[in-house]
Amino acid sequence: MPDRIESNSRKLLRRLRDTMAEDRAGQARLDLITHLIADSIGTEVCSIYLFRDAETLELCATEGLKKEAVHQTRMKLGEGLVGRVGRTGQIVNTADAPSTKGFRYMPETGEEIYSSFLGVPVQRLGETLGVLVVQSKEAREYSGDEVYALEVVAMVLAEMTELGAFVGDNSAAMTARHKQPVLIRGTCGQEGAATGHVWLHEPRVVVTNPVADDPEKELVRLGEAVEKLRVSVDQMLEGAQMGDAEQLEVLEAYRMFANSKGWMRRMEEDIGRGLSAEAAVEKEQSAARARMSQVTDAYLRDRLHDLDDLSNRLLRILTGQGRDTGAEMPPDPILIARNIGPAELLDYGRKLKGIVLEEGSVGSHAAIVARALAIPLVVHAERITTEALNGDPIMVDGDQGIVHLRPEDTVSAAFRDKIAMQAEAQKRYASIRDVPATTLCGETIALHMNAGLMADLPSLEGSGAEGVGLFRTELQFLVRNQMPRRSELSALYSRVLDAAKGRRVVFRTLDIGSDKVLPYMKPNDEPNPALGWRAIRVGLDKPGILRMQLQALLRAANGRPLTVMFPFVAEYSEYRAARDEMDKAIERERILGHKVPEVIEVGAMLETPSLAFAPRAFFEEVQFLSIGGNDLKQFFFAADRENERVRRRYDTLNTSFMNFLEGIVGISTATDTSLSFCGEDAGRPIEAICLAAIGFRMLSMRPASVGPVKHMLRRVDLRAVRAVIDAERRKGSETVRPAVMAYLAGLEQA
Ligand code: PEP
Ligand code: MG
Questions:
Q1: How many angstroms does the Cα of residue 158 sit away from the middle of ligand 1?
Q2: Any residues with Cβ below 6 Å from ligand 1, and which?
Q3: CA angle at residue 71 from 68 to 72, to 5 degrees?
Q4: Whether residue 390 sits in one domain with residue 457
Q5: Which of 185, 413, 556, 737 satisfies CB 3.0 to 4.6 Å to 493 for a cystine?
Q6: What pLDDT digit, counting tens, does each position of 687-743 carry?
Q7: Ligand 1 center from residue 630 Cα (angstroms)
Q8: Same domain, 114 and 140
Q9: What's the domain range around 48?
Q10: Alpha helices of 530-571 — where are they, by DSSP H?
Q11: Is 45 part of a structural domain of the chain?
Q12: What is the pTM of this model?
C-alpha cells in the first residue's frame, strides 16, 4: 500500500508539474488539478480554497462539489473546518465531518453527503496561502500516508500559487499572493516620504521547479548541498572567536542542526514522494516556521530561527541564488531587510530612497545612520520580508510609520500628492536658508545641526545650520569591525573641521554603552544598560580610549579652535576628572611640540536629572552645557526611550518637564553658562518654540529639521507662547501642547 501511494504520489506531482507547462488559463489549470488529485488519491471530492484577502478564504476550484459554488462560497478565517485549517495552519482529518466541532454547512456546495474530510494548509515558508481539501462519502479517517501525500501536493500547490500559475481570472483569490496590495503599519524611524521599488537585502530564493524528475538525482543534490553546508558551519566554528562563549554556543547549536538525522530523513522522504531537493528543504522550513509562531519559549524560538537560517543557506547552495545574484538594483530602491547593521547600510549610502525593517528599533545604529543620511525609515514592519518581492512598487511614509506595498492607484495618487506638498515645503525652507531664525518679538535663536558621519557634513551648507551642535563621535566606532587608530580618527576629525569651514563643531567624546555596543568590545551583561556602565563612566574607568580620542581631536584641530563635550555627566566630580584628562592631553601635546588650539571650549551634556541640581560652582566652571533631551527625558519620567510601550507615554511638553527645563535655564543664566538643547525634540517645530519660549537660545537638531523649525520660529511671538504656557501651568494642565497648538491654529487663521 505505501508503495502504491508513493508511486502514485510521484506520478501525481509530475502531472501537476506538466499542467504548469501547458498553455492553460489559471482557472482551467486549477480545475484540472482538483480532478487529478481526486483521481490519484481516490476520493470523490477535491477542493482548493485560496485567500481572497487576509481574512477570507474562497472556494476556487472543485472536483465533486457543485460547480456553481466556485468563487461563491467564502468563509472567514476560523469559520467552518476549512477556516479552521486556514487559521491554525493545522491539518483536520475526520471520518465524520458534520458532527466535528466547528463544522459549518454550506448548502450551495452540496457537501452534506460526504462524511470524511481531510484539510491541509497550502503553506509556503510558514505563510498559509490556502487550504486543500479532499472528502469522501465513506466514513473513514485518512491514513498517515494519505495525509502525507496530500501535504506534499499542497507544498507543490503553494509553489505554483507563488509562481502565479493560477492568475488570469478576475477573482481576487486567484491573483498571486504577491501581487495584491498590502498595507503594513510599523513605527516611524526617520520622517519623510519616499516612493520607489523593493530591493531585498536578502533576496528570497525562488523555487522554479518543485517537482523532481529523477528522485535519485535529487537525493544526491541534497546530500552534496548538506555536506557543503556542514563544511561551512565547521569553518564558522573554527573562525569563531575563542572565548566568546555565547557565539560558540550558537554555532554549536547550528552544527547540531546541520547534522540532525531527523531533518535529513524528513527531507529525503519528501524527495521520495516526488519533491525536488529545494522544495523538500522549503517544506521543512515551512513546518519550522509554523512551529515558530506557536512556541513561546525564547530559547526554543531562537533555535527554530537557527533552523530557518540554515534552511536559507541550504536553499542558496542548491539554487545558486543569494545576495550576489548579480541582479540590478531597481530605480529608486527602497531597502527591505529583517535587520541591518550600520556598516552595511552605509555601503548602500544615499542610493536608497527609503528603508523598511521588519525588526530594528528607533534607537538602533541602523536608525542613526538612516537619520544621518536623511532616508525615510520604518521599523517593526511586520511580515515585510515575506510579503515583498524584488522590484515591487512600494511607498514609505516615515512620518506615520506606514508602508504601502504594491499600492492601488488611489493610494499612489494620494501619496504622490503628499510628496509634492513636502517638496513645496522644502522650497519654502530653502528660501529662508540664509536668514536668521528671528522671532516676531525680535529674539534670534541659533540653530545648529547634529551629525556623526562625514556623510552628514554636506548638510551644513544645505540646511542653513550655523554649526554642528552635536557631533556623535561614537558612530565612527560603531560602523567599524575594529577599534579605529588615533591617526585615522585624527584624519577624520580634521576633515570634519575642514568641511565646517570655521563654523563651530561640538565634538562629543565617545558615548558607548547602553544601546551603543561596539562590535569589537566585550559586551557587558548588565541588568539595565541605560543606567549602567556607559559614556563618560567608561571613559573615566578606562581612560586609554578617552586619552587617545582627546589627542586625536587636538591633532586634528592643529591650532584651529576646538570644542569638546563630555556625555552623560552625572556629577560635578565626573566633569572635573574629564576636564583634567583634557588639560593633561593639552599639556602632553605641548611637550611633544604639537600645535595646540588657542581657543578650546570644554562642556558637558546634561542628560541626568542629578546634574541639574549640581553645586553652583559646577555651572560657574563648565564652559557650556547641552541638554541631551533624549536621555534626560527618559530618566525624568523613568520611561525607557527604547521601549515602544512607554517611550511615547509622557509628552515632552508636560508641564513638569517644562518646569524642570526652565530651572536649568535659570541657573545657567544666573551663572552666565551657555546652554543649548540637542535632543530630538529640538527638531520638532512645536517643541522648539516652547523651548525658545522658556529661554533656550540655541537648539541643535537633525539637518532636515532646521528649515521647518526656522519657519515656525519666524512666525511666532515668544512672549505670546510664553503666556500660553504660563496660563496652562496656572490651570494645572498636564501638558501645554493643546493650548500651544490652538495658539498656532489662531495664527494660521489670522
Ligand atoms: C540625548 O540623549 O538627547 C542625546 C543627544 O544623545 P544620544 O541621543 O546620542 O544619547
Ligand atoms: Mg544621550
A1: 48
A2: 470, 472, 511, 607, 628-631, 678-679
A3: 65
A4: no
A5: 556
A6: 999 999 999 999 999 888 999 999 999 999 999 999 999 999 999 999 999 999 999
A7: 5
A8: yes
A9: 3-168
A10: 536-541, 543-557
A11: yes
A12: 0.70
